Amino acid sequence: MIQTPQPHTGSYYAATANRSTEYSSLKGEQTANVCIIGAGFTGISTALFLAERGYKVAVVEANKIGWGASGRNGGQMIGGISGEAKLAKSIGREGEKILWDMGWAGHEIIRERVKTYNIDCDLKSGYVDVAIKPRHVADLQAWRDQLERLNFPHEFKLLSKQETEESLGTKAYIGALQNQGNGHLHPLNLCLGEAQAAASLGARIFEQSPVIDIEKGLKPRVLTSKGSITADFVVLAGNAYHFLDAKLRGIMFPVNSFITATEPLSKELELSVNPNDWAVCDPNYILEYYRLSADKRLLFGGRCNYFGNDPNEIKRRLRPRLLKTYPQLKNTNLEFAWGGTIGVPINRVPQMGRLSENIFYSQGYSGHGVNVTHLAGQIMADAVAGTFERFDMFAKMKTLKLPGQHTFARQMVALGMMYYKIKDSL
Ligand SMILES: Cc1cc2nc3c(=O)[nH]c(=O)nc-3n(C[C@H](O)[C@H](O)[C@H](O)COP(=O)(O)OP(=O)(O)OC[C@H]3O[C@@H](n4cnc5c(N)ncnc54)[C@H](O)[C@@H]3O)c2cc1C
Fold first, then answer.
1. Kind and range of the H or E run holding 256
2. How does 358-379 read in b/e, with b if 16+ C-beta sit within 10 Å?
3. For residue 412, what pLDDT is reported?
4. Whole-model pTM?
5. Beta strand pairing status for 124-131 and 279-281?
6. How far apart (Å, rounded) are the C-alpha atoms in residues 182 and 108?
7. Is-contact 364 372, C-beta < 8 A?
8. Which parts of the sequence belong to the FAD dependent oxidoreductase domain (predicted)?
9. In this prediction, what percent of the chain has a pLDDT beyond 90?
10. What is the DSSP string of 391-417?
11. Which protein residues are within 6 Å of ligand 1, measured from CB?
């Protein structure tokens, strides 16, 4: 099925992007050392690492740079790789340090790039995991103990119920773990800045160029309707928007998440809801997450059982949830609303592997993609260069295939949401 190229979704990010990109579409027969399919964080991060190492890189994107989840997400830079317990089991005890370092590597990559390439993406430190139930407080205590034990270099603190209420202006939580190592940013502007950096180092980027096939072989050939790229290596980075390889689509759940952005808050309201400018994330599976934008809007997100992209419908569904946490915003207008799709593997472990000797893929970061995609870019670039140490840790993990994922995708998502709603309520 060939997809028709689409413009950016009507998000707050698209409306406040630093620039609009006009890279040409792919035409004619071309060559590259590495051809990357998909210009989200995974694809662009890989491209930048490879361009820095002197590879001749081409990125082929069906729509626009950052069009997928990377340009629409909550902008929360959260440490850790999801599915760590499963990975740890397969790596063994000595792997704890490797996993720990990998869990924070994406943050360092982002911070370094923002500095090196002067990327204006509102990057800030400050984040809290909040607790709703006593078992969440126990989880946060364990997390705090681990940060202590492994000498986490950034400030962190367990907050009491009262401290949480004072810090977040809501009675919704019974505790929190504040962590200055995490943070938040404008994801589309980060992705655009990284793409610009890669292009400045010689990477060629093609937009509005859906890839329709890959011919495997000694030199794989990536085909669009009007052109092709023959390369030594191909990296597939289409994640939950991927429509090329049925096997890759069938090994993770596409989960929808939605965000609404209020109008800019008055100083008084800003101080009443988030005086420290922290990103906030709750521990539920049907979770809520929010933060202030640079122009002091509350960007409030949540997963829900909806498959459309009607902004009014998204606002209608998110508004009651927002007001439950922040009744003080009852007279505040919601100006933007949009949604996107997250790739969630059943075991939550990010999926990296090979479709053949010279075709690699990386996908399925659950809700940690801002961080982990940047690590994945480094791991993909290492794999192209012939270093497989970290790649193999992921590649050897068993992936579970979801039966009927294509035919019954909506029903399965709905069932999954119901299952997790029950789990959240326990
Ligand atoms: C609403 C929402 C909120 C989120 N919030 C957070 C958060 O706060 N923190 C966090 O860490 N993570 C969050 N995530 C997850 C995170 O955004 C993703 O994990 C991450 O952006 C995935 O990046 P990616 O590059 O792998 O995929 P994407 O950004 O989805 O990019 C894939 C790209 O591949 C292109 N493509 C697909 N198939 C083809 C083809 N055949 N030919 C050419 N191009 C193709 C698509 O057009 C798309 O641009 C959120 C996700 C969503 C949807």
1. strand 253-262
2. bbbbbbbbbbbbbbbbbbbbbb
3. 67
4. 0.96
5. parallel
6. 10
7. no
8. 34-382
9. 79
10. HHHHHTS-----TTTTTTHHHHHHHHH
11. 37-43, 60-63, 67-70, 72-76, 78, 210-211, 237-244, 257, 259, 289, 301, 340-342, 363, 365, 367-371, 373
